[in-house]
Amino acid sequence: MTFVPEAQLQAYVLALLRKELKHLSPGDFQVEKRFKLRIGHHEDDYDGAALWEAEGRADLLVLHGKRPLALFELKREDKNLSEDHVGQGRSYAAQLLDRPPLVIVSNGKETWVRQASNGEPLDPGLDGADFAEKLFSNIGKVAASNLAWAIEVLMGPETTVWVEAVRGRTDALIEQLTGDPDDPRLPYGRDLLFRRRATVDILSMLNDGAKAIVLEGAPLSGKSNVLRDLARLTRSSPDWAMLMINAATAGPGLFQRIANLFETTLEWSLSPQEVRTWLRRMSRSDRKPALILAVDGVAPGSAVASDLEELAETGFGDALRLVLSTDRADAILRGANGRTPGALEPVAKVIEVDLLDDQEFHYVREAIAPARLFFYGGAELSQEYRRPWILRAALAAGSTPDDEDVAAFMPASMGLKFVQTARQHLAKVGGDTARLFRLLARDALADGGEVSDALALTQANALVVRRDALGPASDAATAALAAQGWVKCSRHHGGEDIVVIRAPEFLVSELASELATRVSERLAQGAETAATELLWQSHRFFLGDLIGACAIVDLAARRRALPLELLAFLMNFFPEADTMTGKLVSAEGEDGKPFYMVFDEKGWVALADADGNPLSPFEPVDEGDEARSYKDMIAWMILSQLARLRSVFGDSDGDRFDFEIITHLGQCGFPLVNGGRAPMLHAIEDLGGAATVLDPGHALAEPLTAAIHKLVAEEWRSLDPFFEKVREANALPLTVRVQHALLALQNSASPGLPAWVDAKLEDFILPLRQEQQGTRFH
């Protein structure tokens, strides 16, 4: 038999059928190359001719009179027939929704016709006019037989059925772990998936032969979503088929988890030892695709980690690849002492999943654009938006406009709406969840214990709580929250036991509420005491400016008045530019551990030990420019957040405190923006005389300028008093901030606003800048 093109397969098989089954009417035969297999509780479409060109074999379904008659396995002429081929054909037949009575295997030279129920040749008594009816009466024998063997064959490397089976189980797990964007207990937000560079790196390493890849990153850094994206990218791959296992929950080891999955979904009962055998059998296949076993949430010392170590110790072939996610790779690659290499370490590559880089943030923008959701210019400078959990919470607060001609814009910097939305979601959760988070927040605020440098750096970039700081009530609250899926407890690499928050926005909400109580109590001792408490606590926590600002809002709501003395203290707590000369600075490395830098008298920098002793030569920063930093920023960052809210004081509605904040803080000669673990180069407009602001394209990344933008967008028809205050302040940085806010509104969809903006720029801002800058303005 020569090689038959796929298009001619059906005609060729029909000719063989007419020759072998002479008792049946030839005009009633029909050959289908696509059919449905039922594996356990699931149905999968199967293309029986998919491997014809590559491997010279095809599995086809033969109908007679529209009833399934045979599973026909066709081989090229150069392929010898064997009983294994009969067994494989029987396994297909046993899993068809309508099971046929026959299995036929042929290479063109030989054709074997067997009974599907037992693999035996046809009974010689099956002949004559009632041949067809006698054949179809045997279908019940197939249905009544024990079919576990059939699943075992189909799930082996010799077929391609296992490919769709494991992909289907991965899809089902992802769907199970997918929820609304405002439910952070589930790792995947529905309709919210954006590309990560780590996914591309994984595929590149796999193609280069990596046997094991470990994704490491802090909780909520997006590791699970990288695996979700990997499943998407390999869904139709000829090279890779991915089986994903969720190891983030307490429970049995890896082999038992796989056995449970197959038992539940495929009705294939295996012991853990039989799963080991299956994995090794799959790993030694010489056919594509190879199996990717993706295990999400491997905890150090867990039964899953032990099984992975055992799998590595006994060895596995190249047709099995491991992709694992964990908080710290060395914790699962090394022994309990942290020094002895485990069996996985020699074959493992490590990929860090961290804050989104510029390209990944661009992917986010691409992903949300079809929903007509966009970020204002400058959002790329926001350190907060580089965190996947914040993006998810922020996007949950946004909504696609009903009008298809209208787009919605997300703020370029985080604001109090983030906390307001979190409280709405917390109320929606209901039960005692809010009270439990409040108990946790109360002890987190009261924590005055010493922490390691490593944990201090983590707390500057994420919301975690020391377990040693918890009292009996909050410890019980933590256990209840863990049972509900809101938190998990783990050991930080600094050595402390910590509580990791799966819904950090809920903790932000309750930290603000509890901080308002603490500040209220200290106001009895004076504004300075209250302000000291507010600033210290806000400085301690990630998103501290939001926590502090929301605490003031909560306090004002309880007192039904602004705490003016407290606010006056904050207004006069001026931030300052500072030189780095002679300073020792700690930062968090890619492995999550702290490293140190020391600056000399010229402002040059060198790596150092914890005592400030240089470990490398001093080098210039920013091409020889003196390194600078800013201190005492937190008070004005809190006020910048408050400036987004309409607030009044005194007896007149015209006494606007938000005007006072904007015109006072707006005179600052440098951008009022939060720093971060990896500060990005802000686009700066130099105003001369050492004064700088963010340039127009990025200006809304500064919360204060965003507050001006919001004020004008909402109240532009009645802002003469505000612009009069801007004129009275006569400060160039303030004038430029207002100008940048106006420029961002020139294309507003609000009727009349763009024309008003153009007039205000022409008649007010540009003349005022000319007065303030003189010949330097052009």
Q: Can you offer a commentary on this structure?
A:
- By secondary structure, this protein is an alpha/beta fold.
- It has 29 helices and 26 strands.
- The strands form nine sheets. Strands 1-4-5-6-7 form a five-stranded mixed β-sheet, with helices on both faces.
- α8 (197-207) packs across α9.
- The protein starts with 8 loop residues before the first helix and ends in a 5-residue tail after the last helix.
- Residues 140-147 and 676-680 have low confidence and may be disordered.
Brief digest:
By secondary structure, this protein is α/β, with parallel strands linked by helices. A hairpin with a 4-residue loop joins strand 6 and strand 7 (111-115).
Show the helix and strand layout:
Blueprint: H1 9-20, E1 29-32, E2 34-39, E3 42-47, H2 52-55, E4 57-64, E5 67-75, H3 83-95, E6 102-106, E7 111-115, H4 131-137, H5 139-144, H6 148-154, H7 161-176, E8 178-179, E9 188-189, H8 197-207, E10 212-216, H9 223-233, E11 240-246, H10 254-266, H11 272-283, E12 290-296, H12 303-314, E13 320-326, H13 330-333, E14 348-352, H14 358-368, E15 373-375, H15 388-397, E16 408-410, H16 417-429, H17 433-446, H18 453-461, E17 464-466, H19 472-484, E18 487-491, E19 497-501, H20 504-523, H21 527-540, H22 544-559, H23 564-571, E20 576-579, E21 584-588, E22 594-599, E23 605-608, E24 628-631, H24 634-642, H25 657-665, E25 684-688, E26 691-694, H26 703-715, H27 720-729, H28 732-743, H29 753-773
Helix pairs in contact: 3-6, 8-9, 10-11, 15-16, 16-20, 17-19, 17-20, 20-21, 20-22, 21-22, 21-23, 22-24, 24-25, 25-27, 26-28, 28-29
